[in-house]
Each structure stands twice: as structure tokens, then as C-alpha cells.
Write a structure and sequence with these properties.
Elements: H1 27-42, H2 48-55, H3 60-89, H4 91-114, H5 135-167, H6 175-230, H7 244-257, E1 271-272, E2 295-296, H8 299-302, H9 318-344, H10 347-355, E3 360-361, E4 364-365, H11 372-398, H12 407-438, H13 457-481, H14 487-516, H15 534-559, H16 563-571
Antiparallel strand pairs: 1-2, 3-4
Length: 572
């Protein structure tokens, strides 16, 4: 979900900064670009399952699989966008490219609603025979999804860092407070954008149809791109440099090339290549096989007169080696977050459930696709309470600057809560399905049962709380365990975890649908929820979440003490 809390903060320091460029005057262009892009793209997601099922004749499982893959593509391309901006094009060009691709994709999606030939014809009134979508129609739809994903992958990882480039001035004594203020306003704007997307855009789609519902995101994306380009002459445009991703590959290649070198147990007996301002003078003993990448065998051949490596694919710095080691060490704990994201990404089924329930709340009919707004509100309220009230109280009573639980504890809490949330979802679906059958709606998938949609809110609220613990805990854990040179990677691997969760979630839905529909039986994930067994699917996710939590405990034990825990032990 909220990848609003998981954008990559790669802040390069602008050199020879032109005082006439950058500064606060550029903020409206950058923040509006990001905010409008989020409203436009996030506004398409909640109701998209209905569009695929009604307009493209897809089953619920197939539509959910496509949406999983679409989300996976958007999150996965964020890594590519970050690499592209960091190593080749720079952030300005990548954001510009992303804005154009998103606009093109949304226009193409809008055209599928406007031009009848781009969707299957209506079902025959008399025979009730429905035609499936043709290859050309699906190609147009998937092309729009792909372009929107490319746009999101280019804009989201670069936008916040590009804004920081405009404000980052080491000569300003208030530099840190200015940057912190920007980050606060940035996240406030993206949070508000998400809420607007899940409410206003979804409401328009429900009440005015797809033509208007898709036109508004396209118009917003047009203004997003326009606003960004209008400020072009005022931006500080940091040139691309070497990416850490490239450095990781160099370490692997160099270690493989030097695989025949023997490793001495005494660091004095070998020379290691490091820069003057290196955090590490010699490599650690963890994953010693990678230490071969930074061993100098022939100083005259391996090192240039200016101190640089003659071939960075054969000799790397100790910092590069230790950075890769730090990344590899956290991968097991990182992998436990995939199941957490799978729990969060069951939006399509919750939307289908809501569509069959009484959605009247205080004389207002809640759009089925707006349920996730409660997740975002829970996340926002808890983070505000935790940061402004709970943490200061804990610091006061414990005498520590950060008196709250450690990042690993918060990750664990975030993995426990979804177990309760999904078990609750299973119970609610069992009650909903039984009520539908008792009311004679078993063969009426669009029938509304006499059961309030409020029943769906407790699991969603719990998942919002789980994300607040787990997602923030993960990012803080990575920041605390990585060397300073890897601060840009912390959020990048979190985003990649979300992409992996989408891919695995897609596979899980496909496997469950295929296995449970064998022999002509009704699939658990049938488009007719009253005949399917969505409750059993939720129980399956509950069991997998329990297994994942046990796996997390094993990973924590294997990882050992974190840096913070070691420092606290030394102070005792």
C-alpha cells in the first residue's frame, strides 16, 4: 500500500550551486507534481477490479492477479527509476519522463472507457452470451497499465530527493530544519493526496461512471506534468553519478575474479583498498569470501597514482564490500516483510465484499473502493500519537532519548497484528456468506446482504496499525544497520519488498484459484462470493502469517544483536 512512507531519499549534494536556482520557490512545482500523480494513480486502483470484471469479463481471481502484477510493476520499476536517475539521466529528466509516461498511460486508459471498440461488446440480452476481450483490447489495457507503472517508477523514488536537492545548502545553519520541514510538508501532501484518491476519485467513478472517473485522473496528471515543467528554469539539477547498485555488482565481480586469492586470518598480512574518509580500514570477518574484492595484490598495477582503482571491477573499497555485506545480512529479516505486504494487498477482495454489504454510514453511502481510507487514517493517527505523545512519555520514564521499542520489536509487532486481522476477516466473511445464503442470495452475486460494511472496518484498522509498526520499523532498522553511504538503499529495498509481495501474492491467488476449482468445483475465489470460500482463503493467509512470524523470530536470533543493542550493552 502506502508507498507514501517508502519513497527513496537519495540526497546528492549540489556542487557549485547557483544561488538564483532552487530554494523554497521551487517547492510548489515539485510537491504539486507528486501530489497530483498520487491522486491520479491511486484513484484508479480501488475500483479497478470492478472495471476489469464488468467491462473486460474477467473473473475475480484473474482481475486480482492482474492488479497484483500491476502494483508489482510499479513498485519494482521504482528501483529501476532510482538507478536510472542516480547513474545516467539525473532526477529532473527521470521525473519528466515519468510524468509524460503516466499522462500517456492515463489517456490510454480513459480511451478504453470512451471508445467501445477497445472493450468487449455488451452481453446478448436474449442468450446472455458474453464475448471475452480480444488480444488487441487486452494489449491496449495492459499498455496503459505499463505506462502508468513506468511513470510511477520514475516519479516516486526521485521526487522527494529532487526536492531536497533544491533546499540542501550546507552553508545554511538551519539546513537540517529546512530539510525536515520539507519532508514533513511532502509527506503531509502525499498523505492528503492518498485520502483524496480513495474518497473523491472513487466517489466520482461510482456515481458518474468510468468516462468521467478516468478523465479526472488524466486531467490531474496533465497538470502534474505541466506544473513540473513550468518550474524547469528554477531547478537545481544534480548530475548523475555512480550508483551504489553498480558498486554492489562490482564487489561481486571483483570477488569472483579474485576467488583464487587466499584469505589471511591476520589483517596485517594483507593490504586492503580504502579511501581516506572510509568508515572501515579493514573488512569484517562476516562473509569473508567477499573480502577478496578489496585486497591489493600489486599496488603499482591495482592503484593509479591519484589513489583511484585502476579497474573498479577488479578492486573495490572496503566500504563497498561492507555495504554489500550489510545488505546481505538484513535480507532474511527483510524477507519477513513480504508476508506483511501480502496481507495489506488483499484490497480487491475487501472491495468485492463491501459491494455486497449495506454501505450506509450516517446517511451516507460509503463507496466500496474507499475502505482503504480507514487504513491510511489509522496509520496517520497512530504515527502522530506515537511520535508526539507516546515517545516523549517513554523517553521521560526510561531516561533514554528514544524510549520506544527497538525497530526489530516494532517489526515483530507489525507481523503479529495481521494474524489477528486476517483471522477476523475470515470470521466476518463466514458470517457474511452465511447471511447471504439464508437470505436466498446464493445465486445473486450483486445482491446486498442485510449486514453493515462496518464489519469490515476492524480488520482494515488493524492492518493500518500493523503497517505503522512494521513499515516504519523496517526502514529504521535498515537505516540503523547500514553504513552511512547506504542511506539511499534503506527505502529502496523496502520498495522492492513490496514488489516481491505483489508478485508472490499474484502467484498465491492463481494457485488457490486453480487448485480449489479442480474437478468443476467452485473456486474459493469465485466472482460470486456467496458460492466461493473467501473465508478459507483468509484462513490460509492467517496460517502463512503465523509461519512467517516464527520465521522472523529465527531470523532475529540468527542476526544477533543489532548495532543499537551492542552500543547499549557497552554503556551498561
Amino acid at each position: 500500500m502506502e508507498n507514501s512512507i517508502v519513497e527513496e531519499k537519495m540526497v546528492l549534494i549540489p556542487k557549485d550551486k547557483d544561488p538564483r536556482k532552487g530554494g523554497l520557490r521551487t517547492m510548489p512545482f515539485i510537491i504539486v507534481n507528486e501530489a497530483f500523480e498520487r491522486v491520479a494513480s491511486y484513484g484508479l486502483m480501488p475500483n479497478m477490479i470492478f472495471y476489469l470484471m464488468k467491462n473486460y469479463r474477467m473473473e475475480a481471481a484473474s482481475g486480482s492477479t492482474i492488479l497484483f502484477l500491476w502494483s508489482a510493476m510499479s513498485n519494482g520499476l521504482s528501483i529501476f527509476g532510482a538507478f536510472l536517475s542516480d547513474s545516467f539521466m539525473g532526477r529532473y529528466l527521470v521525473i519528466s519522463l515519468g510524468s509524460f509516461c503516466s499522462l500517456l498511460g492515463m489517456i490510454l486508459l480513459w480511451l478504453t472507457a470512451m471508445i467501445p471498440q477497445l472493450t468487449p461488446p455488451p452481453c446478448d440480452r436474449f442468450t446472455n452470451v458474453c464475448s471475452s476481450a480480444t488480444a488487441g483490447q487486452l494489449a491496449t489495457l495492459f499498455s496503459s497499465f505499463g505506462l502508468i507503472s513506468i511513470g510511477a517508477g520514475c516519479i516516486r523514488p526521485c521526487s522527494i530527493a529532487f526536492g531536497a536537492d533544491q533546499l540542501d545548502n550546507k552553508e545554511n545553519p538551519n539546513n537540517e530544519s529546512v530539510l525536515q520541514s520539507f519532508f514533513n510538508w511532502y509527506y503531509a501532501a502525499t498523505g492528503l493526496s492518498t485520502i483524496i484518491a480513495f474518497t473523491a476519485i472513487v466517489y466520482v467513478q461510482d456515481n458518474l461512471g468510468w468516462k468521467v472517473g478516468f478523465a479526472i485522473p488524466a486531467v490531474l496528471m496533465f497538470f502534474s506534468a505541466l506544473m513540473f515543467l513550468v518550474g524547469s528554469s528554477q531547478y537545481v539539477k544534480v548530475k548523475a553519478s555512480t550508483s551504489l547498485f553498480t558498486g554492489f555488482v562490482q564487489v561481486l565481480v571483483a570477488a569472483f575474479r579474485n576467488r583464487k586469492l587466499s584469505l589471511s586470518h591476520s589483517s596485517i598480512e594483507q593490504y586492503y583498498y580504502h579511501s581516506d574518509d572510509s568508515e572501515f580500514q579493514i573488512p569484517t570477518v562476516n562473509l569473508r569470501c567477499l573480502n577478496r574484492a578489496c585486497i591489493i595484490t600489486d599496488p603499482d598495477r591495482d592503484v593509479n597514482p591519484d589513489g583511484s582503482a585502476s579497474n573498479p571491477w577488479s578492486l573495490c573499497t572496503v566500504d563497498q564490500v561492507e555495504s554489500l555485506k550489510a545488505l546481505l545480512r538484513v535480507i532474511p529479516i527483510w524477507s519477513t516483510g513480504i508476508m506483511m505486504q501480502i496481507n495489506l494487498n488483499q484490497n480487491s477482495f475487501a472491495t468485492l465484499q463491501a459491494n455486497t454489504m449495506d454501505r450506509q454510514i450516517f446517511n451516507f453511502e460509503l463507496p466500496a473502493g474507499s475502505l482503504n481510507v480507514f487504513l491510511v487514517l489509522t496509520l496517520t493517527i497512530w504515527l502522530t500519537f506515537y511520535d508526539r505523545i507516546l515517545l516523549p512519555l517513554l523517553a521521560k520514564f526510561t531516561g533514554k532519548q528514544r524510549g520506544g521499542p527497538s525497530p526489530t520489536v516494532r517489526i515483530g509487532i507489525g507481523l503479529l497484528i495481521p494474524i489477528a486481522a486476517r483471522a477476523m476477516s475470515a470470521v466476518v466473511e463466514t458470517i457474511r456468506r452465511r447471511t447471504a445464503i439464508e437470505e436466498g442470495l446464493e445465486d445473486q452475486p450483486d445482491g446486498v446482504v442485510n449486514m453493515s460494511v462496518v464489519w469490515l472496518l476492524p480488520p482494515i484498522i488493524l492492518l493500518g496499525l500493523a503497517e505503522a509498526f512494521n513499515s516504519i520499523g523496517q526502514i529504521e532498522f535498515y537505516y540503523s544497520q547500514f553504513p552511512k553511504s547506504m542511506s539511499s538503499i534503506a527505502v529502496a529495498i523496502f520498495t522492492f519488498g513490496t514488489a516481491m509481495a505483489d508478485m508472490i501474492g499474484s502467484g498465491l491467488v492463481d494457485v488457490v484459484d486453480r487448485v480449489t476449482s479442480r474437478g468443476g468445483q467452485e473456486s474459493w475465489l469465485s466472482s460470486n462470493l456467496n458460492k466461493g470460500r473467501l473465508d478459507d482463503y483468509y484462513w490460509l493467509i492467517t496460517v502463512l502469517s503465523i509461519i512467517n512470524f516464527v520465521y522472523f523470530l529465527v531470523c532475529c536470533r540468527t542476526y544477533g544483536r543489532t548495532k543499537d543493542e551492542k552500543e547499549e550493552r557497552l554503556l551498561e
